[in-house]
Amino acid sequence: MSKVLLISTGGTITMVRNEATQALAPADIETFKAFMPELFAGSVHVDIQAFSPLIDSSDVNPECWVRIARMVYDHYDDYDGFVVLHGTDTMSYSASALSFMLQNLSKPVVFTGSQLPVGVLRSDAKENLLTAIEIAAAKDDEGNAIVPEVTIYFEDRLFRANRTTKRNAEHFSAFNSYNYPALAKAGVHITYQPHLVHYSDPKEPLILHTSFDCNVAVLKLFPGIQQPVVRALLHTRGLKGVVLETFGAGNAPTDKWLYRELKAAVDRGIIIVNKTQCNTGSVEMGLYAVSLNLMKAGVISGYDITTEALLTKMMLLLGENPEHAKELIGQDLCGEMTID
Ligand code: ASP
Q: In this structure, what CATH number is given to the domain that contains residue 42?
C-alpha cells in the first residue's frame, strides 16, 4: 500500500464560519478529519501532520515554509509522496519556495486547498484533496514517482508549482500556469504528461535549504511614476534584491533619472531582475529601444518567470548563497523559467 503524508497548514479547506463575526477562520485538524472520512477509506495509507493552530495563508511566512519543508525532509524516506493543504491566497509563493528549498527532490510534493470550506455542500475540497493524494502516490510501471516535483493540484489541473499564479478569487479553477503547460489533467482518468516533468537525478541526495533573506522588494512601474518613490524604495536600508515589474517585453520609461537610480542601486550591490507585468510571454531586453537603459544599468532578465517564483528564489539565494546569488538568479534552477 502506498503511503502519503498529508501536511495541513490551514486555508479555506479547513475553515468554518465564526458565529459572532460571520468571518471564515480555520477550525482544528480533528474537525477537518471528521468531514473527510474518505481520507482513510481509499487505497493509499494517509498520515497527517498539522500546524497548530491551523492558519489562513495570509499569515504564512518563510518560517512556515521552513516548517513545511522540514516535515517533508524529516519524513522523506517514510512516504511515497506528500500533500500540503494550504490556503489559496499565498499558495503559489509557498509552493514556489518549496521547489527551490528541496534540491534533488525525487518524490511528489502536491499542494492543494479549496475555494469553499470542506463542510460546505458544494465544496471543491474533496475532489481536490483526494485527487492530490492519488497523484502524490502515483508510480509508473517501474515503481518510480510519475511527477516527482513540487506541484499544485487544483480543480482538474496539475501544475508545476513555480509556474503558478492565483488568478481567480471566485471560480474553482483558482490557479493558472501561464507560461508552462499542465503536467496532468484529471477527468475520469488522470492523464499525465511525463515529457513535461522535471526529473532530478534520483542518485543525488535530497538537500534542504532553509535560509531566507527577506530584504527584497517589488517595484511595479506605471506611467507617471515619480523619482522620489523609486529613490525611496531603492534606498531602503538593507535592501538586497528588487523584482522590477516592467511593461510588455520588459520595457521601462526612458527618463534619465530612472536609469541613474537603477544603475546606482546595481552599483551598490542590489540585484535587480526584470519581470514583465504580463502574465504570458517573456522579457526580451533589447527588443525595444526602451529596454536598452535597463540592460546598461545592469538589470538582469527574469525571462518568463512568475513574480511568486522570482521573489522566493531571490530570498532563498540571498539567504543561502549571497556571493553567487547574482549569477544564479538568471539561471533556470528547477524548471521555473524558459531561457531561449
Ligand atoms: N484566505 C484563504 C487562505 O488563503 C483563502 C483560501 O484558502 O482559499 O487561507
A: 3.40.50.1170
